[in-house]
């Protein structure tokens, strides 16, 4: 009968007061936490429950009594005969050990989840860093390619200047003669054409050059002629041919290092602008120098007419 009472007491305790009492208990002794039965001295020191009228008060009961919701626990414990208290408190400690294991498992799961998140974030940052590095390498390679291209163009342009100089280009008129020679070689029946006809055909085939002349040398195209392509080209060609007839244009020199050097004065602005357009069309560097009383200024290709 007493065993039945103890059993019922333990079962009632587990149903009614397991969780609040487990919170109120002191740390589980290592032996009990590992599932070993407690010695009488251990149980007496940590779970001594007084009999009726006894002077002692259990450590567990004292700790639990501090919680207003644990009075029922104390009452339930006192209903169990004192000789069954050891088994009762052993069951309590086992329950507390089980709860501690569950809490530890939950903490480990949370730690693992945080670790996984940190690893994912680290992987994302690493991937982004690799992508940035790849972009930087591509940009560096592109910059190198651009630098190589610029160097190649500069070398090609320098070779062109040397070739023109070797071909007899020494001033503006000889430069224009070389241009006509090249255009004549490109055109069918060019060898038998007059120089003016070669210039006309060359301008018709080079719309960018015609546009440059129309923009920078508007005086070469009379008003109302802009929309008449044939008359416009003919007027431009006639003015280009006129450059051959004036020896004063020999003041514009050609340098194998700098290219075409045009000297702009008070009355030759249209000629200088036209030669600059022609030099740009042929890919030849051009420098324009303005003569003034005390100073000389330089400009690049396509300088507007004075």
TrEMBL record:
- Can you say what this protein is called? Uncharacterized protein
Q: Which organism is it from?
A: Tetrabaena socialis
